[in-house]
Every structure is written in C-alpha cells, then in structure tokens.
Design a protein that fits this description.
The complex is a heterodimer of chains A (242) and B (183). The longest helix of chain A has 23 residues. Chain A has 8 helices and 4 strands, in the order ααααββαβαααβ. In chain A, strands 1-4 form a two-stranded antiparallel ribbon. Chain A has a two-stranded antiparallel ribbon with strand order 2-3. The termini of chain A are far apart. In chain A, 41% of the residues lie in helices and 5% in strands. Chain A is mostly helical and 242 residues long. Chain B contains 8 helices and no strands. The longest helix of chain B has 30 residues. Chain B starts with a helix and ends with a helix. The chains are: A mainly alpha (242), B mainly alpha (183). The interface between A and B is large, with 36 and 44 residues.
Chain lengths: 242, 183
C-alpha cells in the first residue's frame, strides 16, 4: 500500500471522527462534575506577590516620611536679650529697625532718652557673645582704616566674634517655644576687650552671614507642612543709652 | 473570546478563563479519551487529568496558531490516555508472525455517519483501537507508535491489520443489521 493510499484511507476515518462535536447516543459525559473536581485541583492565583509589593511600598513611604519629618531642623535664631543692668533710668528707646541697622553698622543710632520696647523677630546671640561693648579709641581708629561707621551708641549690643571651635550658646536651638532670658539673669558681664582690626572684620562678616542665613530659615518647608507660624518673640529690653 | 486572549488569561490562573477553555474543548477531548478507554468514567478521569496538565504547563507553552494550541492539548490528552493504558497493561498484543496486511478494504465506510464510526471504534479491543487511533486518526507513524507504546514496529503493524479486519467485520454486520431493520 502506497503512502498516498494510506493517507487517503486514514482521512476517511479521521475526518468524521475528528469533526464530531456532539456526544453520540449511549455515551454520558457529566461536564460539570468533571469541572468541579478539576477546579479543586487548579492552582489558586497567588495574591502573595501583590501583598508583598504593597507592604514594601508602604514601609518605604513610612520610612521616607519619618526621615523627612524627624530630621533635625535648622537651628533657629534665639533672642538677643542682653543689656546693662538698669541702675539708672533708661533714656533711649531704639526701635527694632534701628537696632538692626546698628548691627549692620551702616546707620548711626540716634540718641534717645526713652525706654525701649523692642519687638524682635528671632535673632540670636549666645550668652557669651552678648555683651555690652564699649568701643575704645583703638577700635575707632581701626574702623576708620577699614572705612566703616561705628554706632554712636557704644552700648549697643553686638555679637562678638568668637572662635568657632566650641560655640556654647545660651539657647542654641529652640523648639516651638523660645526661652526668654531676662536682664537680671545675665549677671555681670566681663569688661570688653579692645577689638583689633582682624576681629572687627570677622565681626562684620559674621553679622552679614547671619543675616543671610536667617531669611531662608523663615521659609523652611517643614514649617509650612507643619502649619506652624514662625515664632515671634516680644521682649522688653532696658538699655542704658547714656 | 479569542483563543489567544483566553490563553493569556489562563496563564495568569484566572478561573473564569480556565472555565471558558474547558467548556470550549471538554466534549471534543472527552470523545478523544473515550476512543482510547473503555468506559465513560475512565474517559472523564483522563479528561480531568489532561486539563490539569494543560493548565499547569500553559505558562511554558508558546502560542503560534490556534491549531497549534489545539494539537498541543490533544497530545497531552493522548499521552494521558496512553499512560493510563500502560499502567493497566491493557494492550492486547498479537504475535508478530500473525501480523499481515489486511488491505485497504473500506467498503461501506462512506455509508456510515460520524457517530456510527465512533461507536465502531469504541467496540474494538483496546490493543487494536489504540494502534488504529494513533495511526489512522492521530496520524502517527508505526515507528512513533512503537516508541510510544513500547512495542515493536511489526507489532504495531499487526495490531493495525487486526483492527482494520475487525472494523470491516463490524461494518458488514452494521450493514446487515440495517438491512434487516429495513425489511
């Protein structure tokens, strides 16, 4: 028998049998029963992978949030509260704008006999730095050399340049509540040392850099997210303006 | 639903798609299993095992055409049936010397319907119809059949000859019965 004949003969059987789509009479097939048994053996679609992904994502979000909110905030400026012990009645009052201008050493301070009621926006000077400065004659000469104006008031509080090794501020970092230091807590200040030229330059540069740092601190994103207002402190400072 | 989409969803173990696929091919493959096995219950069992293997091995299957997918499933079903037959040692093997070419007598086959042909196949002994199914319907060669059933090529040929002879007798008997009913 040739291959062609064999294929033809096979097709006579295969075609009708292969095309059969209905059960012939006398055969019984319970499709639902077979499916029910089959369904029990089928592998259940695993939701474990999705659960793992969700868990990992949530842990990541929590960790990032914690890092963001718990990182140490920028050191806020504490309050300058320092003054000479008020033995005599105070004669001058300097507004905050004027005081800042004095700190910048650009505007000479007027003499005044009123008591100061100062409202100040978060400016800091440590306890050691806060001092009543009496500008000696040598310092004035130095200032003249570097083309700088000194305040007319010698008792204006100035931040003295200190070595950067161990700054020990009275209030280095403040939390939401700012601690207020009153004049009588400061004690007697040591007599100021005369400034030399280098110290004076450092003092001016440091003040300028502090002013630059203070501005972005107010716009801190964290404060916005916490819906916290920038702490403002009102202090009354007695200054003997002589 | 298209078969390709059905396969994709079955690969994701979606039970709805698996039910669709089962419903689409259940009867066809039940009839295939029934051609190899003696009873309906055995055929149902093999159908269940076959579909289980289809769903388990579907992730490894690469779709090319619908016909290719159907042929792949059919092969799984056939293998399940043969495995069951081997397990029961159900083959009726005749001596190789008895193997002879019966010839290609198929007179009367044209007069039979598909259902009658199917019934004739299920009436034959297991050894005969297994080789006949594999050779005449599935299209395997004697070498392939010998390898699948772990028999010699001559045994495969002799089984086929016997199957043809038996079928011829059954067809003649069917014609005789039909003629007698007509009278």
């Amino acid at each position: 028998m040739t291959t062609m004949q064999q294929e033809k003969q096979n097709n006579q059987w295969a075609e009708p049998v292969g095309s059969l789509q209905e059960l012939p009479d006398g055969f019984q097939f319970n499709s639902q029963k077979v499916w029910n048994e089959l369904e029990q053996q089928l592998p259940v679609p695993s939701k474990k992978s999705w659960t793992v992904y969700y868990a990992a994502a949530s842990v990541l979000v929590i960790a990032l949030s914690a890092l963001f909110f718990l990182q140490p905030s920028q050191p806020e400026r504490s309050i300058i509260v320092a003054a000479q012990p008020a033995a005599q009645p105070l004669k001058s009052a300097i507004k905050i704008e004027q005081q800042e201008a004095v700190a910048q050493k650009t505007i000479p301070v007027k003499k005044s006999d009123n008591i100061a009621a100062v409202k100040h926006k978060a400016v800091s000077v440590s306890k050691d730095e806060a001092a009543i400065v009496t500008i000696p004659a040598e310092t004035k000469e130095l200032a003249a050399e570097i083309d700088m104006q000194l305040p007319a008031n010698p008792l204006v509080l100035e931040k003295k340049a200190l070595p950067k090794k161990n700054p020990t501020p009275v209030i280095a970092k403040t939390g939401p509540k700012l601690k207020i230091i009153y004049l009588n807590e400061l004690g007697v200040m040591p007599p100021p040392e005369p400034l030399n030229k280098q110290e004076l330059k450092q003092m001016v540069q440091q003040q300028q850099s502090e002013q630059q740092e203070t501005a972005p601190a107010k716009e801190n994103l964290k404060q916005v997210l916490y819906f916290k207002t920038i702490p403002r402190t009102t202090t009354s400072t007695s200054i003997n303006n002589q | 639903m298209e078969l390709l989409q059905l396969i994709r969803e079955c690969k994701q173990n979606r039970i709805t798609a698996q039910k669709w696929l089962y419903d689409r091919f259940a009867v066809q493959f039940f009839l295939l299993c029934r051609r190899y096995l003696k009873t309906d219950a055995e055929a149902e069992e093999m159908l269940q095992n076959g579909f289980l293997k289809v769903f388990q091995h579907l992730p490894q299957f690469t779709y090319s055409t619908d016909a290719g997918f159907v042929a792949w499933m059919k092969k799984i079903m056939v293998n399940e049936c043969l495995q069951e037959l081997r397990k029961r040692n159900s083959f009726f093997l005749v001596p190789e010397t008895a193997a002879a070419d019966i010839g290609s007598q198929n007179d009367g086959l044209d007069r039979l319907s598909a259902q009658e042909i199917f019934k004739l196949l299920t009436v034959m002994p297991v050894g005969y119809r297994t080789v006949f199914n594999l050779f005449a319907i599935e299209g395997y060669s004697h070498v392939e059949i010998a390898a699948m059933l772990n028999i010699s090529v001559n045994t495969s040929k002799s089984q086929l000859s016997k199957a043809r002879k038996t079928l011829q007798e059954l067809i003649e008997k069917n014609d005789y019965d039909a003629a007698r009913k007509a009278k």
